[in-house]
Amino acid sequence: MREMAFLGFALVLLGFWAMLTRKNILRIIIGFTIIDSGIHLIIVNLGYLPGRTAPILEKGMRVGDLSKHFVDPIPSALVLTAIVIGLAVTALMLVYAVRIYERKRTLNIDKYRELKW
Amino acid sequence: MVEPIYLFIILPVAAFLMGSLHQHLNRWQVFIFFTVLLFSFYLPIPWLIHLLKGGSTAQVFTAGFLPPISINLQIGIEEAFLMTIINLLGIMGAFYLLHHFRGTVYGPILYLVFIMGLNGIIMTRDLFNLFVFMEITSISLYSLITLSGSSENLTAGFKYIIASGIASILFLIGTIYLYYLTGTLNIDVMIASGYKIVGPAGSIALIMLLSAIIVELKQFPVNGWALDIYTASDPGIAAIIAGGSSSAMFFAAYKLLPLWSPSLSSIIAGIGIMTYVLMNLMGLKQVKANRLLGYSSIAQIGLLVGLSALLLHSTPVTGLTTIWIILGGLLINHLLAKAGLFWISGLIKGESLSSWSVLRKYPSLLFIFACLLMALAGLPPFPGFWVKWNIAMQLAQHKQFLWLGFIMLGTLLEAVYFFRWFGLIMKSELTTGIRVRISSLLPIFTGTFLMFFISLTMMNLLSGFNFNMLLPILIATLIFALKLIPGKLKALMTIFIIMFYFYFLLPELSGLYRLFAIIFFPLSALFMIAAMNKPGYRNGYFELLILIVLSLGNLLTSHTSLQFFYSWEVITVATYLIILRGVKRFDTALLYLVFSLAGALMILAGFSYSYAVTGSTFLGILGSSNSQITIYILLVGGFLIKTGAVGVHIWLPGAYAETEDDFSPIISAILSKTGILGLLLVLLLMGKSFAANTELNTILGWIGVLTAFLGALFAIFQEDLKYMLAYSSMGQVGYIVLALALYSHLGWTAALYLAFNHIFFKGILFLAAAGIIQRLGTRKMYEMGGLINRMPLSFLAVLISIIALSGVPPLSGFGSKWLLYNALLEKEWYLQAALAFFASTVAFLYCFRLIHSIFLGQEKTRFRQVKEASLWFLIPQYVLIALIMLISLFPNIIIEPIAQVMADFIPATLSWEGNTLMSSLGYWNGNVIMIITMGVFMIPLIGLLLRVRSMQKVKQFNIVYAAERPDKPETTHVAHNFFPHYQKALGFLVTPLVSKFWAAVSEWCHTIAGVLRNIYTGNGQTYALHIVFMVVLIYILAGV
Amino acid sequence: MIMVSFYILGIIILLAAILAIYARNIVTAIISTGVISLLVSILFLLLAAPDVAMTEAAIGSGLTTMVFLYAYNRIRRIRERNDG
Amino acid sequence: MAKYFVIIILLILLFLIFWNLQKNTAPRNRLDLLSSRYIDQGPREVGSANLVTAVVVAYRGFDTLGEVIVLFLAATGVGFLMQKRQKAYPKSNPASEILRTGSDVLLPVIILTGTYIFLHGHLTPGGGFQGGVVIASGFLLQFLARPESRIKVRKLHFIESISGFFYVLSGLAGLILAGGFLDSRFLPLGKWGELISAGAIPLIYSFIGLKVGSELVGILNNLKGD
User: Fold this and answer.
1) C-alpha pair distances (Å), B303 with each of B14, B215, B274, B381, B494
2) Contact A97 C71 (CB under 8 A)
3) Where are the domains positioned within chain C?
4) Do B1019 and A110 make contact, defined as CB atoms within 8 angstroms?
5) Quick check: is A57 in a domain?
6) Is A62 inside any structural domain?
7) Mean pLDDT throughout B101-125?
8) In a domain, A61, yes or no
9) Higher per-residue pLDDT: B82 or D97
10) d(Cα B853, Cα B798) in Å, to the nearest integer?
11) By C-alpha distance, which of B721, B625, B618, B619 is closest to B668?
12) What H or E segment, with its residue span, contains residue B436?
């Protein structure tokens, strides 16, 4: 569905907006998870074919002729991996946020500029 | 052979188990850690051997299905090679980090998984699996970066996560759309079904994927975060990032190369090479060591990326092995050298560049450091040199001259900041603060040793094993190892070795080469007698001298341009090091190096152009008819820099004058002739039909005569004795260039005769200067005076040499000038002849000043007690005087062989009648002139010598400053500002326009670098914005 | 029917995203992010991907939100200790 | 302000790129060869009724290994980053009695549910990851109910390690007994649709579920603080 893809891209852009403009690093991380959701939506949508069902066999289905009835399972499989990776990255970012706050007592990304040039 | 899949079984299992069992494992933990790493290092080696023997690339299937149904891994020769070196780096890096890993189980686990991830990136043939492995390496790095736990660690790491996070988003979008278009995730199948990647959707998907890879490869401008990582993280981690993850990511990019459309791959080439140039430019402004290494790392990867796109994609592939040598060699050179430098940085406590001066206390570490810098700068005998050579040859063959130019610019900039750093280390104040651990040293030494080994292999592959090319380095290293031999003994050994080598070399040489061998070997051995004078060990000095002189021999025996260039660069580096040893300020030596390297790059460009048109590196063929002008300009330009021609001479006075007193004669008299050799070879080998007739020779002639004139002019206004001699050298070599440019038998005979003569008298002058300076402790001429009583032998030597120099009868200088003017008139170059004549007059002025200011005039009270110069200085001087006398009396013993040699190339116009030399314009009998003039000359000389003992009375009111106290007492001396009237008349000619020009060039480079690097604001959000900007930019450039 | 629910969900998702970016209170923002994931997982069901829906609901809206809250809690406690 | 302007312009351009990307993507009306093959052959080849599971565990099992490693890395990384944490934060307020009792009652139920999910991964939606998350959420409830309680970290690590170990071991069994590393067919495929079927998929998913669950509990425990 085209609309679904645009919703996904809209989420990606909103996430980018948060990442690029918000100063609080927690918001930046939020932006990152929003982008992630958007991407997942885009990927799953690419595997979708209108009018088809989830690729799970049920009793009574005839094996061997199902590729006309099911949606693509590959994007789903990829998204599963992507979600888990997203969780891992988010968790690490948050731990970073905690540790940085411990050191610098601020969550403002503009204040983390001791390294430059 | 172990199936590579076991890498992904054993490493995770070890990591999983270490997590829970560490309490039970205790000390075994380290053992397991290293066993697993060793296993991963061992695994690809049998494969590499198997594949090198011609075995076929192996596929590893997972899940029991064939690709593309399931994910497959591939181990081909490139994979095996890269895995071997990366896993080796893994072990060395782990060893280095060992002390960090004590007491934590998390560190080793993360490290193991990181290494596994790198191997996965290299082997996998599935696009999404590549993404997973990229995430594995980055996520393990996110944690490893915080190893030392500083707040910079954390903020830099956070910027990394943001950048890398955006990269993975882009990668995912690209991947999924490519899957949508091609119906597969397998890279090979995807490449095969590239026809399905069409239209805007296909291009955009590729752009997304490409952008992600460019971010991961840290290319300009999306690399601010990477610089922070290199700066902030523990050097051990920075080493594996710079070496390991960059290399693995490069390989991922390399795998995907066939996917890109031509326009995208030219964008990649552009980004890569721009990264190389701009990062090296910005490196100029850097004062923090680790950040500088970061800039250099990124630059090197940029070069790799750019070259892989240029050579493998947009142009037809020829000579694949050569390209692999380039890419593989560059990779391994960068990996080992950069890791080594980062490891050294971990030993040093300060973070500024100058804090590395502590390395001076550890000569072996300093040696390693110098080796690593030279490797990165692409100098022999390291892998980088062979790579540089091949890059030039390949790019020229592919007609990518613009890119070649950019790459050379980048190389030069990199050399500038690296060797400025080296100079800083050698010359700045000694700092304390180093922590040396054996576990840290081991990987550093192993890495450097490996580099030598690899360089040998590459040499083997490229030019065939040539023992002669290695011999100078071997002998020099051997002597260097014999540290505790006293300097005098080493000097003797050096002379002996040089003469011995000469003895073996001479039969191999003929004609012209034989003449140059005589210049290079016995004469430099003669000059080295002076070195006996200095006490102490002088570590490094003799080793480098041997290296230089023996390499000069190799220059003469070179058959290919590669051999020639190799020896040329060895000489350049060794000379730089020897100058740096002697000078007080490092920028003198740096100036020498930068100009020499620029010259070398021009020579390289010339050779590569010649290779491009003839397909051969054989020195006998330099270019074919349609490209000769370019080759001529490049090669002659390069060699002119070496001779110190006007415009590019600014390195010369400092290098000649500031270096050690007993090296000055060698560099100014002998090493300046390498440029002459080069010019002569170019003119000879370009083919007569072109080289004899080209109008460019006229320009060359003008450059020569202007150099002669301005050199002499600069010399007369110097207060410093050695600077005066240095400028004089510049001028004298100018005459030689002028004579060469004539391209006539007479001219070339004159050139070589001038060359010999120059060696004789300039040798004497510099040696005499060395003797005087040693006794007086000053180089200022106005502080000297009246030394004729104290140093009569030196006086006599200087007197004879300036007679030889100024070209008045009866000494050999007259003969050389006579030949030169004959040759000029024969060619009808009247204007040049007039200017050359005028220059000789100017030369006379400084000669006069030499005698007057130093030896005549009032004796200074503080120098009442000085003794005659040391015997070791006088011996070579008097041998040279004997030679001058000999060739003055019997000019034919030297002119005849020269004329004969030259007659091989150009029909002779000179003839002999007994001792009389006949040219078309006149005749010259050395004996007669000698005897007549001697008579005229000796009488006043004897009178002078008799009268000079008595003091001269000074009139009472002979003071300039009547009532005022002079602010600088020395300026009251008559010998100061000796030629004020001439200064008024000709002074405008010596305004340092050229120095100003080059200073402005340098300043502009630094300013641009300073402005450019402002994009690295230190703000993670700005870096994220750069990425978005780059995506948009690539989209626009690709013209979707 | 599907389209109608899609549009409603889509609009709510976008609003929640804006709330997540601009809400004063960071906890509100975190919760909104969780809501986005939850609603997106419903969209996954509409797209015939129940596996993904489950994962997104469990990980995206459940676990990630909790990790967020815990992290924020720690930050808050550091701040309190610092003030106190 | 200029910065915002630049960002807006860039994001608009980025949006145009996305627009161009999506607009030019032809809608799909049939599946490609590869996915058709998975759907048509999957039930027979690997015996899994849930074809997403077939792809995740069998065909692209190597990705899943990577995924498990990523989560493991996250857990290790969180532990690594938190190991130098500063102690002695103010205690949080104790939870209400209802929550405590409720969570005590719910915990076994939630764990059972999680187990069900990963055991039925080859039949119904869900699998190891989802089941693991559900189990972790049970412990999360415990953390909320009893902030002062400590879980036995060593036991947790043990479960995590051992399940990971066995997961890789089952992959190795595939290499030795069946077609390749992570081949799930070293156990009999059985009849599709039954609990004991699909070769080793339920086994693999159980290991993954345990590993994921214990890792997530570990992450939460580390973040929770003392």
Assistant:
1) 37, 15, 9, 20, 41
2) yes
3) 2-83
4) yes
5) no
6) no
7) 91
8) no
9) B82
10) 12
11) B721
12) none
Can you list the alpha helix ranges (DSSP code H) found in A1-117?
A: 2-21, 25-46, 73-104
As for how many domains chain A has, the answer is: 1
Percentage of residues of chain B with pLDDT beyond 70: 94
Among residues 21-60 of chain A, which lie with CB inside 8 Å of chain D?
Answer: 21, 46, 49, 54-59
With both helix axes pointing from N to C terminus, report the angle between B438-463 and B363-376 in degrees, rounded to the nearest 10. Answer: 40
Cβ–Cβ under 8 Å, residues B96 and B343: yes
Domain annotation covers residue D37: no
The torsion defined by the Cα of B675, B676, B680 and B685, in degrees rounded to 10, comes to -10
Chain D CB contacts of A44 under 8 Å are: none
Assess whether pLDDT exceeds 50 at residue B659.
Answer: yes
Question: How far apart, in Å, are the Cα atoms of B509 and each of B501, B514, B515, B901, D134?
Answer: 13, 5, 9, 12, 85
Q: Which residues constitute the domain of residue A38? A: 2-50+69-111
Distance of alpha carbon C40 from alpha carbon C28, whole angstroms:
18
- Which residue of B232, B285, B1014 is in closest CB contact with A115? B232
Q: How far, in Å, CA of D74 to CA of D79, rounded? A: 8
The answer to whether B866 and B775 are in contact (CB under 8 A) is yes
A55 to chain D, minimum CA–CA distance in Å?
5
Q: Residue B95 in contact with residue B49, Cβ under 8 Å?
A: no
Residue B138: other Cβ atoms inside 10 A: 26
Q: Is the pLDDT higher at B989 or at B599?
A: B599
D165 lies in a domain? yes
Q: What is the pLDDT of residue B651?
A: 94
B352 has which bridge partners? Answer: B288
User: Which residues in B lie closer than 8 A to residue A34 (C-beta atoms)?
Assistant: none
Taking 90 as the threshold, does the pLDDT of residue B215 lie above it?
A: yes
pLDDT at D94: 64
Residues B517, B553 contacting (CB under 8 angstroms): yes
Its domain, for residue D205, covers 45-73+95-224
Note whether A56 contacts D125, CB cutoff 8 Å: yes
Q: What is chain C's Cα-based Rg?
A: 15
- Lookup: tokens for B353: 């560049």
- What CATH number did the domain enclosing A78 receive? 1.10.287.3510
The subunits that touch chain A, with at least 3 C-beta pairs less than 8 Å apart, are B, C, D
ipTM at complex level: 0.96
Query: d(Cα B803, Cα B757) in Å, to the nearest integer?
Result: 11
């051999």: which residue's tokens? B563
Residue A79 lies in a domain: yes
The average confidence (pLDDT) of chain B is 88
Cβ of C77 and D225 within 8 Å? yes
pLDDT for C22-69, tens place per residue? Answer: 999 999 999 999 999 999 999 999 899 999 999 999 998 889 999 999
**Burial class (CB within 10 angstroms; exposed 0-12, middle 13-18, buried 19+) of D24:** middle
Chains C and B touch, contact meaning at least 3 pairs of CB atoms under 8 angstroms apart: no
Half-sphere exposure of B541 (CA within 13 A, CB side): 30
Residues (pLDDT < 50) of chain D are 86, 88
Number of domains in chain D: 1
Q: CB contact, 8 Å: C31 with chain A?
A: no
3-state secondary structure of B780: strand
**How far from B187 is each of A105, B320, B325, B737, CA to CA, in Å?**
46, 21, 25, 59
Separation CA B522–CA B583 (nearest Å): 26
Length of chain D: 226
**Which tens digit of pLDDT belongs to each residue from B811-870?**
888 888 888 988 998 888 999 999 998 898 888 888 888 888 888 877 777 888 888 889
Which residues of B, range 519-548, sit inside 8 Å of A by Cβ?
none
Residue corresponding to tokens 């750019």: B306
**Structure confidence at residue B962 (pLDDT):** 47
